Amino acid sequence: MARSQNAFNKKEKEKKRQQKRKEKQQKKEERKANPKDSSLDAMMAYVDADGNILDSPPDEDPKKEEIDASSIEIGIPKKSEEDANPERRGRVTFFDTNKGFGFINQDGSQERFFVHQSNLSMPIQEGDKVSFIAKKGMKGMDATDVKVI
Fold it and tell me: What's the predicted TM-score (pTM) here?
């Protein structure tokens, strides 16, 4: 009777596992015998002003600019003149009296504001020059307190 093929394969696999363990142990011993410099300084990389990577810290750059930290604005920017004067001027480009809404284009820019009849001080029509105050609405900027000029 012949030996089972399975037994032969099992022995071969076990030999390969043993060989791998020996190789792994040898590599471990070699690493211990020849330690590489794995300190933090050896791992550091520096970048100079031109974007080149260096192993040592770059020399002080004479072109370096001093920046005054107090001049840096963090947070909300200062109000501009446009924010100081909330009243804007524009022309009514569309107004549907049946539905009670329309749109106003601001003079000097391409901004378009939605206007509803509840925000009117007096009745308006298409083509009227108006003054208004812009406020944030549900879907964008709305014109409120609309007056014909």
Answer: 0.44
